[in-house]
Structure formats: structure tokens, C-alpha cells
Write a structure and sequence with these properties.
344 residues, alpha/beta, Leucine-rich repeat, LRR (right-handed beta-alpha superhelix), 10-stranded mixed sheet, two-stranded parallel ribbon, 26% helix, elongated
């Protein structure tokens, strides 16, 4: 077991081994401390390092965040790739602006309510239990809404981001290799981030949706980079104009389709209209009411037809048939005579 303490710092600083008083003064003025990849599993008392601003503890075996209450001037804390399961004991770090906790076993983003100056939170690639996703405490997210600019949640089995809509100051959002698939939800959320400049969603099912890139570009007017590809300003303007034109055409079409007169099932058309229709079901299909033309009697007996399916009233009279036959024969004779004359 390796504990981070003053003795470990002294062993790493050969110059101060024989000069203990000077070493204490050194610790008081120390601003950067790098103990990454040292197999450290716990943090002991370092209260003498009151001016510490940057602490590197990544690639170790640390399981708990503790004994950092002295570091009121700490601005950067690097603790990625450890065995941390819970975010805790950070409320005293009032000046902390960048927190790196990627590659741990954290299941809930919490305990950051007091960090009013936190601008970057990197909590990507957590070692989560099978079937679970990274969760966000609403109180923590709300408290970060006025300061957080960079959020990295890559590879955390996340399937929705609606809880992050309040992060209105975001400029960089990284959520690659997750399970986001609701395009409508994504558009609504990022529309609440007017300052967004860079976003990476590669590896999510939503990237396969039709017009995925076009929709995000038109929603995020300041977006400069999407999924590692730079956004051309000319392309953005074209998409914005195209969207505006499409919406204008749709508005005109909707206005033309509006009915300017009241529609009701009890309209009295008066005697000048022999037919009345019932519009009570829906527009576009007219249902005749159960009555005929005024003054007319409807026929109740069956209609007679012959073997060919023709009504008797539709058959031609014998005289008419002879006239048609005679006309056809005269036409044929004239055509034949003209043909003979032409051949001569």
C-alpha cells in the first residue's frame, strides 16, 4: 500500500532529504504536485501544501477522494484511471475549475454543488455494472448550469440527455460511443445551448437518422465542429436559408388549406340547392344525406336489363340501327372509289 503524504514527497525530492526546514518552506510554496502512476491507493495529510493549485494523481489505485479540504487554492485535479466509486469531499475546493475523473467506477455524478467555478468536467469511460448507465443528480446539474463549459461523458451507456438541458453555458459537449437515438430530444436539448461550439456524438444510433447533421447545424448557430468535421459557414447559411424557405412554403400551404366559412352538420341550404351534404365527419369527403331532389319521386321497383346488361331504354331502335348501317356503308364505298382512282 502506497499513501500520498509528506514523507513520500520528501523521498521524491532528493535535494531536500538532508534539509528538513527548507523542505517545509518548499511545501508551503508548492503549487504543482505530480504523483501519477505511483500505485498510490490513499491520500494522507497534505495540509502543509496550502498553495497547491494543480494535483496530478491519475493512473493510480485510489478508491476514495479525501484529505483535500486544505487545498482551497486548487484549480486542477487529475484523478482519472483510479478505482473511485463516488464523488465526495470536494466541497472545500471553491476555486476548482477543471476536474478529471474518467476511467473510474463512478455511477452517479453528484457532490459538486459547491463548485461554483467548475468549467470542465471529464467523467468519460466509467467502469459501470452490466446494463447500467451513468446517472446525473439533478441538484448537481442545476448547480453547474452557470459555470460548466466543457462536459465529457463518452462511453457511459447514456441513452438520453434531457437532464442536461439546463447547462446553458456549454461550449464543448462530448458524448461519443453512447446509446443516444432520439433525434427530437437531442434537437430540443441542444437548442438550449446557444454557446455550443464543438460537439462529438460519433458512435450513437442517432447519427444514422436522416438529415442528422443538417438539423444540428441549423439548430446550433455557433457550432464550429461536429463529430470531428469542421462546419463551413457557407454550408451553414445555405441550410438555414433552406430551412426558412421550407417553413415559409409550409405556412403558405397551411393557410391555403384553411376553411373560411363555418362547417356544421345543420346548415340550411334553402330551396335553391337541390342537394345538401353532411360535413360533420371530416373535410374532403362528402356524405349525401338520405333524401332525393325536391319534387322528385324515387324509384323503388328493380331496373330491368337484358342478357347483355343493357337497360331497354338504352337500346337503339331498329330505324336508328339502319341509319347507322347505311352511313357506314356509304363511307366505305367512297373510300374504295378513292383508292381505285388513286391506283389508276
Amino acid at each position: 500500500m502506497v499513501h500520498l503524504n509528506v514523507d513520500l514527497i520528501a523521498k521524491s525530492s532528493n535535494h531536500f532529504k538532508s534539509k528538513r526546514p527548507h523542505f517545509t518552506q518548499y511545501l508551503k510554496k508548492l503549487t504543482h504536485l505530480n504523483f501519477s502512476n505511483r500505485n498510490i491507493d490513499d491520500i494522507d495529510d497534505l495540509s502543509v501544501c496550502k498553495n497547491l493549485t494543480v494535483l496530478y494523481l491519475y493512473d493510480n489505485q485510489i478508491t476514495h477522494i479525501r484529505n483535500l479540504g486544505f487545498a482551497s487554492n486548487l484549480t486542477h485535479l487529475y484523478m482519472q484511471n483510479n478505482n473511485i466509486t463516488c464523488i465526495q469531499n470536494l466541497s472545500s475546493l471553491q476555486k476548482l475549475s477543471k476536474l478529471f475523473l474518467g476511467g473510474n467506477s463512478i455511477t452517479v455524478v453528484e457532490g459538486l454543488e459547491q463548485l461554483k467555478e467548475l468549467t470542465e468536467l471529464h467523467i468519460e469511460d466509467q467502469r459501470l455494472p452490466a446494463g447500467e448507465k451513468l446517472l446525473f443528480d439533478p441538484c448537481t446539474v442545476l448547480s453547474l448550469s452557470e459555470s460548466l463549459c466543457v462536459l465529457n461523458i463518452n462511453k457511459n451507456n447514456i441513452d438520453e440527455v434531457r437532464d442536461l438541458a439546463v447547462l446553458s453555458k456549454l461550449t464543448h459537449f462530448f458524448a461519443a460511443e453512447n446509446h443516444l437515438q432520439d433525434m427530437q430530444e437531442l434537437v430540443v436539448v441542444i437548442s438550449q445551448w446557444p454557446q455550443l461550439q464543438k460537439m462529438d456524438l460519433r458512435g450513437n444510433p442517432v447519427c444514422q437518422k436522416p438529415k442528422y447533421r443538417d438539423q444540428l447545424i441549423t439548430v446550433c448557430r455557433k457550432l464550429e465542429d461536429l463529430d470531428g468535421k469542421e462546419i463551413n459557414e457557407l454550408c451553414r447559411q445555405f441550410l438555414i436559408n433552406w430551412k426558412a424557405s421550407k417553413e415559409a412554403k409550409k405556412k403558405v400551404k397551411d393557410e391555403k388549406g384553411q376553411i373560411t366559412f363555418p362547417v356544421t352538420a345543420d346548415i340550411s341550404w334553402g330551396p335553391q340547392h337541390p342537394y345538401a351534404y353532411n360535413y360533420s365527419d371530416y373535410l374532403g369527403k362528402r356524405k349525401p344525406q338520405e333524401f332525393g331532389r325536391p319534387g322528385m319521386t324515387t324509384r323503388s321497383d328493380p331496373v330491368r336489363i337484358d342478357r347483355r346488361g343493357v337497360r331497354p331504354s338504352q337500346r337503339l331502335s331498329k330505324r336508328a340501327c339502319l341509319c347507322v348501317h347505311r352511313t357506314f356503308m356509304n363511307f366505305t364505298l367512297k373510300v374504295g372509289l378513292c383508292s381505285v382512282h388513286f391506283l389508276k
